[in-house]
Description:
Blueprint: E1 5-16, E2 19-27, H1 31-41, E3 42-48, E4 54-60, H2 62-73, E5 74-77, E6 80-81, H3 86-89, H4 94-108, H5 111-121
Helix pairs in contact: 1-2, 1-5
Amino acid sequence: MAGTRITVTLAHGLKIGDELQHEVVLREASAGDILDAQEASERLMLVPNGDDGVEPMLIASPSRVGVEVLRRQIVSIGDVSGPLDLKLLRRLEPEDLNLLLAKSEQLDGAAVESVQEGAKTRGRDPSDRPATATGDVGDRDAHGVE
């Protein structure tokens, strides 16, 4: 399915300049899109460390990752080339945003989720990782690499 593109017609459209745009071309997300979206969604937060103190930790918002991937998947909206700026994406009607998110998910299936999970755990201390029966991209020990 690599390189797949679909055209989506927005119910409400997005006004860009003087024109109301309704046609959006989406492409399948690449690994780079997912990694860039993961990085863009991270925020440095102070979290409790169990010793009555706090420590800095990068925390990613799953919903923000989804939106960041989507904006990178937009090839064009009307005559405007993508990726779509987050400011423009915020101007969409909720119904149109939900439509684009659903179509994006159809394009990518579980691939985005799988890479996200691997990226979240990679490079972290094994004690910070949730135990899994099958391991994942970020689970070095399950793949015989330490």
